[in-house]
Amino acid sequence: MKVKQKEVRSSKWAFLVYEESAPKDFIEKLNSKHVPYILSPLHNLDVNSETGELKKAHWHGCLFFESLKSQSQVSELLADLNGPKYVEVVHSPKGMYDYFVHAENPDKTPYKVEDIKSGCGFDLVKFMREQGEDEFVAKVIDVIEENDFYEFRELVSYARKEDMELLKLIISRAYFFVKYLDSRRNAMRDNEK
């Protein structure tokens, strides 16, 4: 008796759509699925490393489900997009994001981050901020140092007026920034003694 293997299930699935075979209204069809998604810039300059020829123009995409889905369920859901018969589990959204723009691969054609698209409630700004969070944290530290802030209130007021995305990060990392400002205040007091 043959034991049926259980199909892999995930809440994040990657897919590929070729420009030449995608329906003209494929974005509308993708939106009609009502599943949050992110879509790479059109990869129309990728080169086949073995032949040196341009690959077919394509988009990489990822669906973010609220519950676990099987490969067959996702393939069936995307069948009307003419292409993503094969879908695969996304193990690292950061890795996927880097691949969308070839951020970590200098041998490949780079694509613009601002050409990434999303839909159906996917919070692209939050996702992008999370992918570059180290840079945002460094930027906030620079803001603190450049403006000589010692109080959390000063930092929050500044971010509220100047950059709402920084404000969101400050709120999500409030403990870190409060401690950083405390240490600046303590260092100032120690220097005054």
Give a written overview of the molecule.
The chain has 193 residues and is α+β, with helices and mostly antiparallel strands. Helices cover 43% and strands 16% of the residues. It has helices at 26-31, 71-77, 93-101, 124-131, 133-146, 152-162, 164-172, 174-192; strands at 9-18, 37-39, 58-70, 88-89, 117-119. Helix 6 packs antiparallel against helix 7. The longest helix is centred in the last third of the chain and has 19 residues, at 174-192. The protein starts with 8 loop residues before the first strand and ends with a helix. The model has no long low-confidence stretch (mean pLDDT 86).
Terminal Cα span: 82 Å
- Secondary-structure-based class equals alpha+beta
What proportion of the residues form beta strands (DSSP E)? 15-25%
Q: What is the count of DSSP helices, taking H or I runs of 4+ residues?
A: 8
What is the string of helix and strand elements? EHEEHEHEHHHHH
Task: Give the helix proportion (percent range).
Answer: 40-55%
Side by side, the strands of the main sheet go 4-1-3-2-5
Estimated radius of gyration:
22 Å
| Beta strands, count | 5
Q: What value does the average pLDDT take?
A: 86
Poorly predicted runs of 5 or more residues:
none
